[in-house]
Amino acid sequence: LMWTARATRIAPLAVAALAASLMLLVASRVVKQTKLQAAVSMRSTAAVGAPFARFSSSVRVPTNTPHIARNPAFPFGALSRASPRRNGLQRVHSTATATNPLIAMQEGVFPPYDTIQAETVVPGMRQIIEETSTKLSKLEKSINPTWTDLVEPLEKLSDPLERTWGAVQHLKMVRDSEDLRKAVEEIQPEVVTLSLQMGQSKPIAKAFEAMKDNEEFYKALSPAQQRIVDSQITQAKLSGVSLEGEAQEEFNKIQQRLSELSMKFGNNVLDATKAFSVRLTDKKDVSGLPSSALGLAAQTARDKGDKDATAENGPWVLTLDIPSYMAVMTYADDRALRQKMYTAQTTRASKLFPEGKENEEFASSDNSEIVLEILRLRQKKADLLGFKNHAEVSMATKMASYDKALELLEDLRKASFEAAKKEHEDLQAFAEKDGADFKLQRWDTAYYAEKMRKEMFDLDEEALRPYFALPTVLDGLFRLIDRLFDVKVVKAPFQPPTWAPDVLFYQVVDKEDKPVAYFYLDPYTRPAEKRGGAWMNTVVGRSELLAPNGETVRLPVAHMVLNQSPPVDGAPSLMKFREVETLFHEMGHALQHMLTTQSEGMVAGINGVEWDAVEQPSQFMENWLYDEPTLMGMAEHYDTKEKLPTEEFQKIKNARTFRAGSAMVRQLHFATTDLLLHSVFDEAKQTPYGLDREVAAKTEALAPEEFDRFLNGFSHIFAGGYSAGYYSYKWAEVLSADCFAAFEEVGLENEQEIQETGRRFRDTVLALGGGLEPMEVFNQFRGREPSVEPLLRHAGLIPAM
To answer: Most exposed residue of 307, 678, 719, 753, measured as fewest CB within 10 angstroms of its CB?
Structure first.
């Protein structure tokens, strides 16, 4: 059961990686589509064994959504340690600077989200592109292979571009509009062109190679600096620096086209999600839906014009937005309604949308040809770079090799497939006992699994929601962070501009109350303008080089974006357990960004961390919801202030492994399909959907429907950063489960040992960023190589040791 990895010294960084990362940022989906909408991470975050519907459902939504919507190549800068009262910390821009907010934001840390409009994007970005290109040309003419003459100028040069383009891309994800889309589509080719110019700079590439070849110089560098040099050399190769003439011209055309296709793919998914709704007026049609879902449906109806809609009497409007969609799949008694919603969800962005049959009305937003073209272009790009396929390109910057990734997936499949089949047989028997006279289909599994879970564990997720109001959950999360990592999360003493009125803003302070980092929290769904899913992204990263005048370091700033149920009818946002998991998951990403102690910006926080290790802190944090002091400390009825009964916690814990085999194989299905599409797939022999069904036959107990076009909405791999990398969720889950096992080994009731272990996790996994190889970081924390045993044990797939 020991798991080994090929650790490569690769860190996706600034400049040389701009081309590849640009596409990730452009279509970024945060990379982690959690288990909910196809790349929409509303992710029932994938902690194996969560007790609620996401694991009992066969709904085709990846359990993990792209959720680090980050550009691994951009070393985002960050905030200074200055007091909030100082000029320049709260200030977004000076009144003396240019009026375009993208230009003005260079003087501050917090983007002027309230003034960045569609009409400011093209002129602002164009000016920044021109200035960056000019600086790059000047640097190339005076290149000198030393740290101060090469690396530091590159970090300074790339910072304005990454920060402004990052702000534009963020707004496109959270405040989408037709005008903003048009502006991004117009300027994006110019951003890609600049990224290619930077990534293919031969003088810069040769300078980094000279630094590497100078053995005395290279050995004198710190491990983090060596990682930067190694990464720049690798990323230059992946950016096509060694190509000449027609080959490089073709490579650049491919990059431009891929960025265009990724954006189109994501837009089509979002448009389909927004286009579908079901308006119901008869109470029998919403039978089974809990009051929270009816309240949300009535609120949606009011937003769409039914001003007198109420939860009790309707009308009710249901959508493909995750809180609405999952409520129907889990609770709606009307089987035809569940089938209708499921069919629409799994045919989004296809000609079969929304009823599973040909519909020319949506032909222009069909992603089928886009999927094929993306796969073809990725293969052509691999050919040009001298790789066998795109999977090999992807693995060049990851811990795993292609063979090791497949080996892990197959080992996990063998450990879980028979359990998944048995779980489905049990569910079929339960449904028949409940009166079902039909074979279960995919739109039935979540519904009957919820009933079965209630009967087996006497656990009602809806009845728990009043105990998980967002304010009290946040308080509990922040107490855990203080307990483990010895830092406090508090409301910031100032409020920077935001993109929506309900966005929250916090600061992280050390034990001396000095600011360490800041983050925005955008918690609620906004289907009309906000991308589905959940993600963390950087605003700026920690950097000593980019410290404001008079300060020693620029502090990190992050976004955390969720899509959970909003406040309804005067009550606070009452969270489902999986929404609480999602919050903890994204906070894990944010903590790695914010608690880094790396001084080199290019490898601080999540910068430079191999993609298949980046989910380690996020999945680690989910485990704490099964720790009694943690959960019981936050679970309080929002109205009566009654604490969650202890027996309810035990039910949650007992149900943790309910249908865990099914949850495991579903993720393995997604990950294996992704790897095979980018390695052995041959469109002359089969369609992508045919390959998807072949994998499903070996990984899932219930075959996909013939109309299933899940791949057309799989934004993780076609509009995010997970192509030939979705396996990363399971790879990193091995690491995260083993890390949590360190706390179990010292005794979760042993407070002193827990705190000491938490500080060690902070000082290794969270602090070291991309400055060391992930395997070395893991070894510093655990003192050994990772084992897959804790993951299988947490999932209930092997007995507790």
So the answer is: 307
CA dist 588 and 582 (Å) reads 10
With CA atoms as reference, report the closest residue to 532 among 140, 80, 38, 192: 38
Got the DSSP string for 653-697? Answer: HHGGGTTHHHHHHHHHHHHHHHHHHTTT--TTT--HHHHHHHHHH
Q: Which of 347, 379, 254, 413 is nearest to 724 (CA)?
A: 379
Nearest partner of 44 among 441, 567, 584, judged by Cα: 584
pLDDT digits (tens, 9 = 90+) for 440-464: 999 999 999 999 999 999 999 899 9
Handedness of CA 263, 528, 360, 355 (dihedral sign): positive
What CA–CA distance (Å, rounded) separates 740 from 617?
Answer: 10
- CA gap 487, 763 in Å, rounded: 12
Token pair belonging to 345: 């969800």
Asked if residue 110 lies in contact with residue 555, where contact means CB atoms within 8 angstroms, the answer is no
Q: Which tens digits make up the pLDDT trace of 177-195?
A: 999 999 999 999 999 999 9
Query: pLDDT tens across 562-586, in order?
Result: 999 899 888 999 999 999 999 999 9
Strand (E) positions, 366-456? none
Whether residue 18 contacts residue 522, with contact meaning beta carbons closer than 8 Å, is answered with no
What is the tens place of the pLDDT at every residue in 634-643?
Answer: 999 999 999 9
10-42 burial code (b ≥16 CB/10 A, e <16): bbbbbbbbbbbbbbbbbbbbbbbbbbbbbbbbb
Contacts of 605 (CB under 8 A, 6+ apart): 538, 541, 542, 556, 592, 593, 594, 596, 598, 769, 770
Q: Residue 148 carries which DSSP code?
A: I
* Residue 57, CB-side half-sphere exposure with 13 Å CA sphere: 27
Calculate the average pLDDT of the chain: 88
**Would strands 488-491 and 515-524 be described as parallel, antiparallel, or unpaired?**
unpaired
Helix (H, G, I), strand (E, B), or coil: what is residue 515?
Answer: strand
Sequence-ordered strand ranges (E) for 495-615: 504-509, 515-524, 535-540, 554-555, 557-564
pLDDT at 519: 98
What is the C-alpha to C-alpha distance for residues 219 and 211, in angstroms, rounded to an integer?
A: 10
Written in H, E and C, the secondary structure of 150-214 is: HHHHHHHHHHHHHHHHHHHHHHHHHCCCHHHHHHHHHHHHHHHHHHHHHHCCHHHHHHHHHHHHC
* DSSP letter assigned to residue 636: B
**Residue 793 pLDDT exceeds 70:** yes
Cα–Cα distance for residue pair 114/443, rounded to 1 Å: 42
Closest CA to 781 of 627, 652, 549, 613: 613
CB-count exposure of residue 596 (10 Å: 0-12, 13-18, 19+): buried
Q: H helices then E strands: how many in the chain? A: 30, 11
Q: Whole-prediction pTM value?
A: 0.86
d(Cα 67, Cα 32) in Å, to the nearest integer? Answer: 4
Copy the structure tokens of residue 288. 């089974």
How distant is the alpha carbon of residue 738 from its chain centre?
Answer: 21
Cα torsion 701, 444, 726, 733: sign: negative
How many CA atoms, within 13 angstroms, populate the side-chain half-sphere of residue 671? 30
Burial state string for 494-514 with b = 16 or more CB within 10 A and e = fewer than 16: eebbbbeeebbbbbbbeeeee
User: In 366-390, which positions are buried (b, 16+ CB within 10 angstroms) versus exposed (e)?
Assistant: bbbebbeebbebbbebbebbebebb
- Residue 535, C-beta contacts closer than 8 angstroms, at least 6 positions apart: 28, 29, 30, 31, 32, 41, 65, 66, 67, 68, 69, 173, 559, 560, 561, 586
| pLDDT confidence of residue 533 | 87
H helix or E strand, kind and range, residue 79: strand 79-80
Active centre residues (catalytic): 586
